[in-house]
Amino acid sequence: MLMRDYWLSKLFFDLQQPALAAEFKANRDAVLARYSLSPEVQNAIRENDAPFLAQRTNAYLLRYYFFATGMKDAEFIRKLRGG
Amino acid sequence: MADFAGAFAASHGPLLVREWDAVPQNEKLRLEKAFKELGRRVTAARPDVLIAISPDHWANFFLDNYPAVCIGVGAINEGPPEPWMKGFPQHEIPGHAEFAFHFLNESLKDGFEPSLSHRLKLDHGTCIPLWRMELAKMPAIVPMLVNSIEPPMPSLARCLEWGKLLRKAIESFPSDLRVGVLATGGLSHSIGEKTMGAIHEDFDRETIRLFSSSEKSLIDYLNGELPSRGNGSEEVRNWLVAHGAAGGRGFELVDYLPVPTVIVGCGFASWR
Questions:
Q1: Is the overall model pTM greater than 0.90, yes or no?
Q2: pLDDT by residue, tens only, chain B of 272 residues
Q3: DSSP one-letter string for B94-160
């Protein structure tokens, strides 16, 4: 069955807004605190654990998220593959 | 009575804008030529309205409510919300509420239940082709957003039926109007998956070939192959809507080229 963490997905969706993306870069924990995220998901975000996050959200949202954080596609792909 | 002005298709992808400078010169020239040739054909067809068929890349909809199909009935559509699309020349793109409502009503009458929106943002999926085709005059745009992003998605056969319904709606519209169809997206690509970056040229070329074959062989092939050809390949649904609208007679391929820099198998076509 398709698994979706609603609040993780909502965070990624909202980070398409440039103002929130800038705030996230400056103070990630303050933004994370506004979303109902489990400790495991918060850790995965802090550690850029792309495979863990990929199991819980839409692939396009995941890509937007890492783009918003400034990660290059090559690095994102490497992480997706567990590198 | 309205006339069907033609059906067209073009790939899209954020990197066609964001990584444009990095595209090798020979590929860039072919992409430019293909977009412009398609634009020339659209201009020659003189559409008053283009039904722009694209997925919504999370610009309008979220998990709260993600429609299978949404028809934009607003008098105005908003331009692309993505910051990297800021060069797109229009902040607002006129719609055509009269035709859009006719299409919506005909859909409901025929047992199709689309969602509707009075104000849609047209993201890069619609706007990259509109931009790169360099149309002499921008027609009114009626967006038809078909979910090919978030599973489960409308069946391929249903997308073909949507196209046939669209054609019926065009032909039953009571005013003089030329209505064209622009499908965007595809061909193979993979986004945010382990396979991101993969382009399946064999799949793309066989898909292109089968658009000139029977509906059954096309649908059977796609149903068998899509699960292993990258999530972006699901956007072929939009091409199926155009195919249905055009009467399924196959298309003339303007160009096809896999472009690794933009991670998309780029296809451009106009239906016979």
A1: yes
A2: 899 999 999 999 999 999 999 999 999 999 999 999 999 999 999 999 999 999 999 999 999 999 999 999 999 999 999 999 999 999 999 999 999 999 999 999 999 999 999 999 999 999 999 999 999 899 999 999 999 999 999 999 999 999 999 999 999 999 999 999 999 999 999 999 999 999 999 999 999 999 999 999 999 999 999 999 999 999 999 999 999 999 988 899 999 999 999 999 999 999 99
A3: E--HHHHHHHHHHHHHTT---EEESS-B--HHHHHHHHHTT-SSPPEEEEEEE--SSSS---HHHHH
Q: Is the ipTM of this structure higher than 0.90?
A: yes
Q: How far apart are CA A64 and CA A9, in angstroms?
A: 11
Residue linked to tokens 């689309």: B114
DSSP state of B28: H
The contacts of residue B147 (CB under 8 Å, 6+ apart) are: B55, B56, B66, B67, B68, B69, B153, B154
Nearest by CB: A59 against B82, B152, B192 = B192
Contacts of residue A16 in chain B, CB cutoff 8 Å? 58-59, 81-82
Minimum CA–CA partner of A9 in chain B: B63
List the end-to-end C-alpha distance of chain A, in Å, as a whole number.
26
| Beta-carbon-side half-sphere exposure of residue B120 (alpha carbons within 13 Å) | 34
Q: Choose the mutation target among B56, B121, B193 for the interface with A, i.e. most A CBs under 10 Å.
A: B193
What residues of A are in contact with residue B193 (Cβ under 8 Å)? Answer: 54, 59, 80
Minimum CA–CA partner of B232 in chain A: A60
Q: What are phi and psi of B177, to 5 degrees?
A: -165, 140
